[in-house]
Every structure is written in structure tokens, then in C-alpha cells.
Automatic annotation (TrEMBL):
<dbReference type="GO" id="GO:0009361">
    <property type="term" value="C:succinate-CoA ligase complex (ADP-forming)"/>
</dbReference>
<comment type="pathway">
    <text>Carbohydrate metabolism; tricarboxylic acid cycle; succinate from succinyl-CoA (ligase route): step 1/1.</text>
</comment>
<dbReference type="GO" id="GO:0004776">
    <property type="term" value="F:succinate-CoA ligase (GDP-forming) activity"/>
</dbReference>
<dbReference type="GO" id="GO:0004775">
    <property type="term" value="F:succinate-CoA ligase (ADP-forming) activity"/>
</dbReference>
<feature type="binding site">
    <location>
        <position position="163"/>
    </location>
    <ligand>
        <name>substrate</name>
    </ligand>
</feature>
<comment type="subunit">
    <text>Heterotetramer of two alpha and two beta subunits.</text>
</comment>
<feature type="binding site">
    <location>
        <begin position="17"/>
        <end position="20"/>
    </location>
    <ligand>
        <name>CoA</name>
    </ligand>
</feature>
<dbReference type="Pfam" id="PF00549">
    <property type="entry name" value="Ligase_CoA"/>
</dbReference>
<dbReference type="InterPro" id="IPR036291">
    <property type="entry name" value="NAD(P)-bd_dom_sf"/>
</dbReference>
<feature type="binding site">
    <location>
        <begin position="100"/>
        <end position="102"/>
    </location>
    <ligand>
        <name>CoA</name>
    </ligand>
</feature>
<feature type="domain" description="CoA-binding">
    <location>
        <begin position="4"/>
        <end position="104"/>
    </location>
</feature>
<dbReference type="InterPro" id="IPR016102">
    <property type="entry name" value="Succinyl-CoA_synth-like"/>
</dbReference>
<keyword id="KW-0816">Tricarboxylic acid cycle</keyword>
<dbReference type="GO" id="GO:0005829">
    <property type="term" value="C:cytosol"/>
</dbReference>
<feature type="binding site">
    <location>
        <position position="43"/>
    </location>
    <ligand>
        <name>CoA</name>
    </ligand>
</feature>
<dbReference type="InterPro" id="IPR005811">
    <property type="entry name" value="SUCC_ACL_C"/>
</dbReference>
<feature type="active site" description="Tele-phosphohistidine intermediate">
    <location>
        <position position="249"/>
    </location>
</feature>
């Protein structure tokens, strides 16, 4: 089992013909993901060869879905056009939309997240590495060689910490690893992923990685306390961040005790989550749990 993405997922790439889109489409093809085409209105009707596969380019997401049966779109679209690309995919009722783009204006993301209400699309991102179900499919930029299949579910705000955690626990493996993105507003939250992992019979334990700023981790802690029966370990990036300073990566700001790594750690521990002070310590806590399962 997996969450949101599996070997049957058919993936299109919005912005496939751009530099980043082409590069990562190639890597997704090489990972074994079923990439079925791309979208670029200016290049509709052409094909491009990426990763040894001839891929058709369509004018719209709707057309791509109709022609290929695609049920996932990965968007590598410049920040200025990301909002329109998302709305196009949502209007086409793509089941899963993964938005990799960094630097999307927060107001644009807010408009898209509001537009999602009542629609059938699940959005992951923006500013995220996407989602990987090892040995089955990859929608995003996570290196597929880091880890194989196993019993761990991973949800993370940080891309690089996703990769590090997968590497640290590669001898156990993962059902699905999902990078939700570090922006103040994202489509899929820690809580959404925790709920999906709780309902997935093959996920035996969950790693949750957060970052300073906002209250997403505190809300996740409350959710874990009330709804999650599986063991959860956590890590919060930013223990050494100076108070009151906006940190570039997460767009996170820390004021007083709210939003600090320590406050988040305490909220998670109060919910029964073991929290490591470093990624390696967090991996060791998970290793201990898995050995005793």
C-alpha cells in the first residue's frame, strides 16, 4: 500500500519542456514512474524525448488527461504562472497535483488553496520535493535511489531533510515519503498525511519533520494525540535559529515562544511523540521503535 501515489499512477508534467521540467521528467522516467506526457500550450502537438521515452506535449491539462488517462500532474512552472497552472489542473479535476515551484507568492497560494475547497483535486506543495512511493512511482524531485520499500511513512516540510531521513532509514524503507513544502500556506498539511498514513495498513510507524514558524506542528500534535494510534517520531528544524528573525528557507518567523523549535518539540512530546534534537537522533528513535515492532 501507499498514500496518494502508486505504480498505477499516470503522470503528466506541466512545464515539461522547460529546463527544470525536462531535467526532472528525465529523472522521473529513469526512476520507473509512468510519465505519459507534458503540458505546454506553445508546444502542443509536438513530442520530446526524455529519459529514452518519447513523450507527447499537450495544450492543456484537460486534453492531456483525456488522451492519456493521467491522474497526477507535477508542475514545474515559473512562480508568476503557478497560480494559473494550478487552477487549470484543478478545473480539469486531476486527482493529484504536485507543485514543485519555489517562490510562489503567498497570496497566489492562498487563492489556489481556497479554490480547492469542494473540488476533487489534492494539491501537494508548493515549494516542495513532491512525493515518492519507493520502487513504484515518483512525482517530484526526490532522488529515487535513496531508499526502498518498507514500513515507514514520512511527512516533511523540508526537502533536504526528507532525503536525509530516507537515507538514514534506508535499511528499513518507506511506504511513501511526502514533502509538503515549507511555505506558510500549503495544499496538503501534516495532518492530511498523518490521517492517510494512519489509514494505510502497510505503514507501521510515521516520521514527521517540521520547521520553526507557524503552528502547523502544534496542530499536528493535537491531531496525533486524538487520532493516531501508530508510533510517531518527530524532528523540528531550527533549534538554533535567532528569535524574531525571518528565516529564508521556510519563510518562517519566530516570535516569543510561539513557533520556536522548543515549543513545537514540547507540544509533540506532550502528544506522545518522541522528538530528536538532530535528524540522526530522530532516525535512531525510529530505528528503536521498528526493531521492537
Amino acid at each position: 500500500m501507499s498514500i496518494y501515489l502508486n505504480k498505477d499512477s499516470k503522470i503528466i508534467v506541466q512545464g515539461m519542456t522547460g529546463g527544470m521540467g525536462a531535467k526532472h521528467t528525465t529523472l522521473m522516467v529513469e526512476s520507473g514512474a509512468n510519465i505519459v506526457g507534458g503540458v505546454n500550450a506553445r508546444k502542443a502537438g509536438t513530442t520530446v524525448e526524455l529519459g529514452g521515452k518519447e513523450l507527447p506535449v499537450f495544450g492543456t491539462v484537460e486534453e492531456a488527461m483525456k488522451e492519456t488517462g493521467a491522474d497526477v500532474s507535477v508542475a514545474f512552472v515559473p512562480p508568476a504562472f503557478t497560480k494559473d497552472a494550478c487552477i487549470e489542473a484543478i478545473d480539469a479535476e486531476i486527482p493529484l497535483l504536485v507543485v514543485i515551484t519555489e517562490g510562489v507568492p503567498v497570496l497566489d497560494t492562498a487563492v489556489v488553496v481556497q479554490y480547492l475547497e469542494g473540488k476533487s483535486t489534492r494539491m501537494i506543495g508548493p515549494n516542495c520535493p513532491g512525493i515518492i512511493t519507493p520502487e513504484e512511482s515518483l512525482a517530484g524531485i526526490t532522488p529515487h535511489t535513496i531508499a526502498g520499500k518498507g514500513p515507514v511513512g514520512l511527512v516533511s516540510k523540508s526537502g533536504t531533510l526528507t532525503y536525509q531521513m530516507m537515507f538514514e532509514l534506508k535499511d528499513f524503507g518507506f511506504t511513501t515519503a511526502i514533502g509538503i513544502g515549507g511555505d506558510p500556506i500549503v495544499g496538503t498539511t501534516h495532518i492530511d498525511a498523518l490521517e492517510a498514513f494512519e489509514n494505510d495498513p502497510d505503514t507501521k510507524a510515521i516520521v514527521m519533520i517540521g520547521e520553526i514558524g507557524g503552528d502547523a506542528e502544534e496542530r499536528a500534535a493535537a491531531y496525533i494525540k486524538d487520532h493516531v494510534t501508530k508510533p510517531v517520531v518527530g524532528y523540528v528544524a531550527g533549534f538554533t535559529a535567532p528569535e524574531g528573525k525571518t528565516m529564508g528557507h521556510a519563510g518562517a518567523i519566530v516570535s516569543g515562544s510561539s513557533g520556536t523549535a522548543q515549543a513545537k518539540k514540547e507540544a509533540l512530546e506532550a502528544a506522545g511523540v518522541k522528538v530528536g534534537k538532530t535528524p540522526s537522533e530522530t532516525a535512531a528513535l525510529m530505528r528503536e521503535i521498528l526493531q521492537n515492532l
